[in-house]
Specification:
The complex is a heterodimer of chains A (about 150) and B (about 180). Chain A has about 150 residues and is mostly helical. In chain A, about 60% of the residues lie in helices and about 5% in strands. The chains are: A mainly alpha (about 150), B alpha+beta (about 180). At the A-B interface, α3, α5 and α6 of A face α1 and α5 of B.
Chain lengths: ~150, ~180
């Protein structure tokens, strides 16, 4: 499965902000870390703001702040702000739609869709933050070992 | 970009719950959460287990729970594989239970700990009872020498799905397959 760029940016932005709910980050800071344009990111933040997940803080030291519920917001909630994850079956009314072959293919595609929605709908931002922490913890010893080799 | 289909509804679910008191006001008195204890299930607990399961699933199956308890005793599963949670006060109100077992070479899988059932009284959720039960049985599994814990959740059953995901559980290497037999 491949997410649209806007969905991907929205998820990483929400994770960045939710990891530090007490401070604001600018789109420039998030953009610099993830290597994306601030223009694109600003559009994404606008949608996230409308959904009540982030708010902008004006003035010196301003930026965006996470204001959603990390334990209630799932990846599916964020993604569906930017793209439809409904049934991806064949286009209605397209050629061969009434055939048994198309119906069989539809069953398989529906199974995939159900699985995708179940996974994305069951992983909250809080769960994602724990996964990020776990990943960072796993990387630390490797980095320390590499550093000790360099300096040892 | 797709517009938010129902902004008000989505905002209300995703937004962080607002503080109960206005800014600057004294915080409301905090209701202390009832403390709870975990202990191995006894035969007398099976009635409460069956009642809670029936309340949550709306499917009465008292015989099943009794047979499960008896089977665990018979095959010598460690006592920590069937735990109940109760309030720690004198009333010892029943709060929830967990049942697990070690299964070996089922479907070709190396021995692992299966969480067969986990249920918490709907009025006593958010106290950490479920987390404590799961952590406790995970310790039992480790003591028994297995390093993998599994369970199965209906994909549309949002609450347990969120709970197990929140506990760090991810999709495993097996896919459950089934067929209508007519």
């Amino acid at each position: 499965m491949k997410l649209q760029i806007a969905s991907h940016l929205a998820i990483v932005s929400v994770l960045e902000l939710a990891a530090h709910p007490d401070r604001q980050l600018t789109v420039a800071e998030i953009g610099a870390k993830h290597g994306v344009s601030t223009h694109h990111l600003a559009k994404v933040m606008h949608v996230l703001g409308r959904a009540g997940l982030v708010r902008s803080v004006r003035g010196a030291g301003g930026g965006y702040q996470f204001c959603g519920s990390a334990r209630r917001t799932t990846l599916l909630d964020v993604i569906e702000l930017f793209e439809a994850l409904g049934p991806r079956g064949l286009d209605a009314g397209g050629p061969g739609q009434d055939t048994a072959e198309a119906a069989a293919l539809e069953i398989v595609l529906r199974e995939i869709d159900d699985s995708v929605r179940a996974t994305l709908g069951s992983i909250t931002i809080a769960t994602m933050l724990r996964l990020v922490e776990r990943d960072l913890a796993e990387r630390r010893p490797a980095r320390r070992t590499a550093a000790s080799r360099l300096h040892g | 970009m797709k517009r938010t289909p129902n902004r008000t509804k989505r905002q209300s679910r995703l937004a962080r719950p607002r503080a109960a008191s206005p800014a600057g006001a004294a915080p409301p008195a905090v209701n202390s959460k009832p403390a709870f204890v975990l202990r191995p299930a006894q035969r007398g607990d099976v009635v409460a287990v069956a009642a809670l399961d029936e309340r949550v699933t709306a499917l009465p199956k008292p015989t099943h729970w009794l047979e499960l308890y008896e089977r665990q005793k018979k095959v010598g599963q460690p006592a920590g594989m069937f735990l109940v949670a109760t309030t720690s006060d004198a009333a010892a109100r029943f709060l929830g239970f967990i049942v697990g077992e070690i299964r070996a070479w089922e479907f070709g899988s190396a021995p692992c700990g299966w969480v067969y059932a986990l249920s918490v009284d709907p009025d006593s959720r958010l106290l950490g009872v479920g987390e404590a039960l799961l952590e406790s049985i995970a310790r039992e599994f480790r003591k028994a020498g297995v390093s993998k814990m599994r369970t199965m959740v209906a994909r549309d059953n949002r609450l347990p799905m969120l709970f197990f995901r929140g506990a760090g559980m991810m999709a495993g290497p097996y896919i459950q397959l089934e067929k209508d037999l007519g």
